[in-house]
Amino acid sequence: MTVYVESRDSARYAFGDEDRRILELLASRYIGANPPIPFAYRAFSHQGILQNEEGLYDMNLSSRWPQAANGDYVYVYGLVWSDNERSIDCNLEPIGPIKLYMNDKELFRTSAVEEMKPDARVVIPMLLAKGWNRILIEARRTPAGFGCRFGADEAKVRILNVIAPFTDRDGSAGWVFSEPVKKPCYGEGAFPEELHSEEETGLSWLPRTKWEAEEAALPNLERQYGRPEAAVAGYGWTRLPVWRKESLVLQGHVCGPASVWIDGKLVLNLTEAGAFRENVKADYSSGNLLIRTLSGSQGWGFELNASADDKPLALKQPMHIHGYSGEWLYAGPIAVNTELDASAVCQVSTLFPAIDLNGQPTGSTYWELNMPQTRLRPFYENAMLSNKWTTGTATNFGRWDYPLGVTMYGLLRTARVLNRKEWSDYALSHIRTCTDMYDYALWDRKEYGFPSVNHQLVLTRMLDNCGSFGSAMLEAYLQEDDDMFLRIADPIADFMLKRLERREDGAFYRLSEGEYFDNTLWADDLYMSGPFLTRYAIVSGNQEAIDEAARQFLLFRRYLFIEEERIMSHVYDFKYGQATRVPWGRGNGWVLFSLSELLERLPEDHSNREALLDFFRSMCSGVADLQSSSGLWRQVLNEPDAYEEASCTAMFAYAFARGIRFGWLPGDRDYAAAARKAWRGLTENAIDRSGNVHGVCSGSRYSFSPDYYMYDLRTVVNDNHGIGIMMLAGVEVSLLNSAGKFPI
Fold first, then answer.
1. Is residue 72 within 8 Å of 97, Cβ to Cβ?
2. What letters, b where the CB count within 10 A reaches 16 and e where it falls short, cover 17-50?
3. Which of 92, 187, 307, 672 is at a distance of 20 to 30 A from 407, taking alpha carbons?
4. What is the Cα–Cα distance from 364 to 352, expressed in whole angstroms?
5. How far apart are CA 585 and CA 581, in angstroms?
């Protein structure tokens, strides 16, 4: 028996058979450990170093410094935060001689072959220390090239956000790069001091952060965007301090007609250019102060200040913006005849229909800061860990990924059963943090090459990226109508139904040339597709979606089912023409879990229903035969020496309990006892009295050898692969024990 939690410290020791109390414990611990911290908003120069579609930072310095001579050096410098000491693989594609340093030590230098080979790529393991890590790249110009491309492997999962060094840029996002120099300035043991002013380095660093004197003298919108040739409009957004009911005076100067709103209410309408001073009546709460002004004969821009009782009021940033000391955000140029709702304008998710200075449409634009070529940019920075999965002590709030899809689903079900609206509100807030920024994230990717938020949703290339969280989103939609949820579900469904790679017989598989998993079919993908397609059919009325889900289960059975044991291989590898015949616990759990979700909603007269019920019953029978004496199942189901694993146990308990509740399982075997035994084993051995979840194996690759799963894949405390499904198992066993007395 594998021991994760001593009996004295278990949830069952504390709460006995009170399943509802254990569910409360699980949900409360997760929410307490993952507070709703929003995206980080930072100053970001769109003239700085951007990423390509793979997530590599493009440091081709030839275009930055075309005047640099052969033999010149340029330094690229940035800071990376890590919540814990973690290893991360980074890819470096050299374009000439490169040295890479981290935290004062040389990690890598190119060989002659790498400097000269046009398609060279090097994988560099990097051990990030807890806290800030200083990364310095030295590039030398030669006729072969100048610079490199550098970034995290699997960048949309292992997010590598870079912050600018130097006090002058404190909190700004992005790398800085130096002017060309003739001799090396830095190297091992000699870094530029990131906590000092960049002026103290003796070098000039780009992108620039300050206006030239002649620029600073221009009206603000003209300084930001240039002098328009046609009439254009622009916005400014700031925030008033807390309202104390004093008389409010707005005063300043506009270069053209202007309107002013406070918290979405029009308080001032100026029909011509010039100075103004007006008493206004406004009873506000958030204090959003918005001005829309047109260009005029005096230029384009405004000055706007507020006072109360003859005392000036200090205007504030609309949200906390790292790397920016100004109070105003700007948006423009916008067509004069474009009318936008003032309340909607004052949102970080808002994009603006843009025109050029001649009045021609150019797409969309976003909020700019009072700095050269610098925009506001949101970043996902919660759980900034280098592991593939977001595990550990940092908050996971606001991340779109598949383990968190299971977690949000678990919270939504638990909240409904226990009538805890605050928990469903939390889950909805997490989901909406992602969905509200969907349009922005698409634009961000187009504008900068690689998105700063919603990485996996925007860069959907496989089922892992969209199915699980998309399913949780649709579960939320079934509870609370939100049109944005459907807007996002449509392209996910289109991806699954029309664009996803398939075998000749229609089975979903993974075609990823150059990757270890190229040309494979995974049991996991029934979970990554089936629950989403099932829910999508309900909310959209698209029968094709649920038909496809049913079809995939039967196709996967042909490839992966081990008939003699009635369990599933983890993967079928078409490169070798066979299944691995390794029945990984969680892989089997995904199948039974997802099949129960499909059967719940599949019409009784569906042509595949009987075949799917037979599949469900056969798998339940095979799985039940392998339950250990502790109630848990093993990491590799048919390997007696494999450790006992919690997430697959929770999934099997969930499926058994649902099979009984919906009448799918025959009465010749006591599946109820197996489900209760599993839940008892989890609450005695995998859930401690503080609500921590133990015994959940980390995210898996695949192998033909069971040893990989047994010895290379270790368990992680509070891994998101297990927390949500633990709640879901508790919900279903509670319903089983209560004979349906609680809400479903």
1. no
2. eebbebbbbbbebbbebbeeebbbbbbbbeebbb
3. 672
4. 5
5. 12
Whole-number Å distance between alpha carbons of 387 and 443 = 27
Residue 267 has φ and ψ, to the nearest 5°, of -120, -15
Tokens 């949830």 identify what position? 11
User: Would you say 591 and 568 are in contact if contact means Cβ atoms under 8 Å apart?
Assistant: yes
List residues bridging with 629 in a β-sheet: none
Provide the residue count of the chain: 744
Between CA 667 and CA 555 the distance in angstroms is 28
Distance CA 48, CA 67 (A): 18
What is the pLDDT at residue 243?
Answer: 64
User: What was the pLDDT predicted at 388?
Assistant: 38
DSSP β-bridge partners for residue 511 = none
Read off the pLDDT of residues 227-243 as tens digits, 9 standing for 90 and up: 999 899 999 999 999 76
When pLDDT is averaged across residues 60-67 and rounded to a whole number, the result is: 95
Written as one letter, the residue type at 101 is Y
The DSSP symbol for 154 reads T
Peptide bond into 207 cis (omega under 30): yes
Contacts with 624 (C-beta within 8 Å, 6 or more apart), sequence order: 656, 669, 671, 674
Q: Percent of the chain having pLDDT more than 70?
A: 97
For the segment 629-656, the average pLDDT, to the nearest whole number, is: 97
Q: 53: buried, middle or exposed (CB in 10 Å: 19+, 13-18, 0-12)?
A: exposed
Q: What is the pLDDT of residue 125?
A: 95
* Confidence label for 187 from pLDDT (cuts 50, 70 and 90): confident
With a cut of 70, say whether residue 391 has pLDDT above it: no
278 bridge partner residues: 250
pLDDT digits (tens, 9 = 90+) for 89-122: 999 999 999 999 999 999 999 999 999 998 999 9
Between CA 492 and CA 400 the distance in angstroms is 13
Cα–Cα distance list, 588 to 473, 524, 560, 585, 659 (Å): 24, 8, 10, 5, 16
Q: What SS3 class is residue 55?
A: coil
What does the mean pLDDT of the chain come to? 94
- Give one word for 356, left, alpha or beta, with left for phi > 0 and alpha for psi -120 to 50: beta
Distance CA 450, CA 53 (A): 5
| Tokens 């001091």 -> residue | 193
Name the amino acid, one letter, at 96: G
Q: List all residues 6 or more positions away from 504 whose beta carbon is below 8 Å from its beta carbon.
A: none
Report the pLDDT value the prediction gives residue 387, as an integer from 0 to 100.
40
pLDDT digits (tens, 9 = 90+) for 126-167: 999 999 999 999 999 999 999 999 999 989 988 999 999 999
Q: Chain-centre distance of CA 665, in angstroms? A: 38
611-616: long-range contacts (C-beta < 8 A, 24 or more apart)?
611/554, 612/550, 612/553, 612/554, 613/664, 615/553, 615/554, 615/557, 615/561, 616/592, 616/655, 616/659, 616/664
**pTM exceeds 0.90:** yes
Helix residue ranges per DSSP H, 561-702: 585-601, 609-624, 646-661, 671-685
pLDDT band at 180 (very low <50, low <70, confident <90, very high): very high
Asked if residues 100 and 187 have their Cβ atoms less than 8 Å apart, the reply is no
